[in-house]
Amino acid sequence: MTAFILGIVIGLLLIWAMRHLTGFTSQKPDEYVGNEPIFDLHRHLTGELLCEGMIFGPTGRVTSRFRATMKMQWEGPRGTMEEHFFYDDGSTQDREWRLTLADDGTVRAEADDVVGTGRGSLAGNTLGLRYRIRLPESNGGHVLDAVDWMYVQPDGVILNRSQFRKFGIKVAELFCTIRPMGAQHA
Fold it and tell me: pLDDT per residue over 55-92, tens digit each?
């Protein structure tokens, strides 16, 4: 019986190590330092933006599609992004992010549905951000751990991939594009 329990413990530790030491959540900003174009928040996240994307459930199936309009304004190192989401089921959602960019490329992010303060770093063509978000009551009101990675492309389009976890288990993933309003795309 002891060998059986030891085997289970070792198996669980291996699963934990694989999830936390490899893959999406283990990415580090230093891995992207040399990538171009350099992600400049004041240049790439400013003005009126259009966001289009989808949310995947825990099994990898699309559970929702959305479009969002965003308006980002900067006053020195502080920025405010107003987001208005339109979901495929007809529902809408608003969020206002308050960002603070430090000289060393670190970013603080706050929003009314973010528990505490999100923290991130700019490196090369990326912005990595971690925070805890409270879902609306209509979606259970759960608090999820979020990891966002944004990658600016040569044409200025931003690809955003986010994963949401509860007790370390991935419960949702989001993928979207963000680009200046009116920008042409294929």
Answer: 999 999 999 999 999 999 999 999 999 999 999 999 99
Of 93, 170, 176, whose CA–CA distance to 139 is shortest? 93
What are the E-state strand segments in the chain?
Answer: 47-56, 62-75, 78-87, 92-101, 106-110, 114-123, 126-134, 143-152, 158-166, 169-180
**Whole-angstrom distance, CA of residue 56 vs CA of residue 174:** 6
**Burial letters for 158-183: b for 16+ Cβ neighbours within 10 Å, e otherwise?**
bbbbbbbbeeeebebbbebebbeeee
pTM of structure: 0.83
Which pLDDT score is estimated for 55? Answer: 96
Round to whole Å and give the CA distance between 94 and 84: 5
The mean pLDDT value of the chain amounts to: 88
| 79 CB burial (10 A radius; 0-12, 13-18, 19+) | buried
HSE at residue 128, side-chain half, CA atoms within 13 A, is 13
Q: Which amino acid does the sequence have at 92?
A: T
